[in-house]
Amino acid sequence: MAVWNGRFKKSLDEEALKFSSSIELDSRMYNEDIDGSISHVKMLAKQKIISVAESKKIIKAIEEIRKEIANGEYQIDWTKEDIHSAVEERLVRKIGDVGKKLHTARSRNDQVALDERLFLKKEINLTIKLISDLQKSLFKKAEKYKSVIVPGYTHLQRAQPILFAHHLIAYIEMLERDKERLKDCLKRGDKSPLGAAAFAGTSLPIDRNYTAELLGFSGIVDNSIDAVSSRDLIIEFISATSIIMMNLSRLSEEFILWSSSEFSFAQTDDAYATGSSLMPQKKNPDFAELIRGKSGRVFGALTGMLTLMKGLPLAYNRDMQEDKYHLITALDTTKDCLKIAANMIDHTEFKADRFEEELTGDLSLATDLLDYLVRKNVPFREAHHLVGKIVALCVERGIKLNQLELSEYKKFSSAFEKDLYSLLHPMSSIKKKISAGGASPKEVNRALRKWKRKLSSE
Ligand code: ARG
């Protein structure tokens, strides 16, 4: 029998109940639901709304229900509308009339808002931990390959040589901001909606601050209508996970490129690649592709959530029950992808000597020639133009910058001397990028030390 059946002469149509039940998803919040109920009952007793003996009886039975759900003795199924009514119904079956006092001065509207905040708090901390794990995996590779040279790109065209570690640390930095965004969510979510009741509060003498304190919140959501009507916190969380997935998708895209025969840079362990049912030679980077693909689910959840909320009048509307679908899609997908991304990196080695020779004398050192002329007092714009001409000549002849004779260089500018050839090695180019946060080994080593310190305490 539904928790609201008083004014109804019939029970809910079976199809309709199935359609409207949220239990498949909100049963994931059973622990939070029970924590909320226990604090609520303690408060009701403190405020003398129920007796201490009654509260003890309810708490004991509700703790039993927690165990029954955990060990599968109580199997929750779709015939219950949601986790809130399922727990209450079980309670009444266990202890009779006393159980009927649990929901005093409470509505499922403030209850669900509370469960979601508690659930988010737990899950955000787990997600942050997974991001740290991924950062650690990236860090290990950055350290291992710290003197490996790779081409850096803009427009996916070879731009300037860099250290592979520099590239990997860029992702570690992005992921750090992802953690900060999640921590920000935690800060804003640290208020209890419990006690807002249906939306207008209650005439019973409850103590909202007490339940907030028991549940570990720093305070209460001040406006009872806001407390039950708002889902911006969930939207904020899904936005943060969308940004995480966007970052993971970019990393995956690079993995896919690095795994191609054209790049021949990433060598993934067989345990983290798949084959083709037709082409026997194939070794495919499916896991990176799946992460890239699954980002769509999370972006979809964000759009779904914004669409869900945008036309809703205050206060509670049943539409809001759909929020759990989007929340859980975003959460599960992001957590899975973070785990798999870290494993994928752990299972991948890189060909350390892949690029060094290829980059010696490469056109991607043209900027070094430009800086050379600038240091010799040739105005920047002129130097840029001259080096551009030199590059065009090399392209025309199909040669590298270090294959062009000094006499030819001198035709472009008398400022060129023999020492220009010492510039035409990727490492000498990298060593010169001494600006803060730049490509030089000194700066990259400083970043490695910074991340070693930061990540070892997590
Ligand atoms: N299952 C509902 C949800 O997730 C709980 C709140 C229901 N409240 C109501 N008045 N029908 O939103």
TrEMBL record:
Matching HAMAP family: Arg_succ_lyase
Origin species: Melioribacter roseus (strain DSM 23840 / JCM 17771 / VKM B-2668 / P3M-2)
GO MF entries: argininosuccinate lyase activity
Keyword Amino-acid biosynthesis among record annotations: yes
Protein name: Argininosuccinate lyase
Protein origin, superkingdom: Bacteria
Domain named Argininosuccinate lyase C-terminal: residues: 364-431
Keyword Lyase: yes
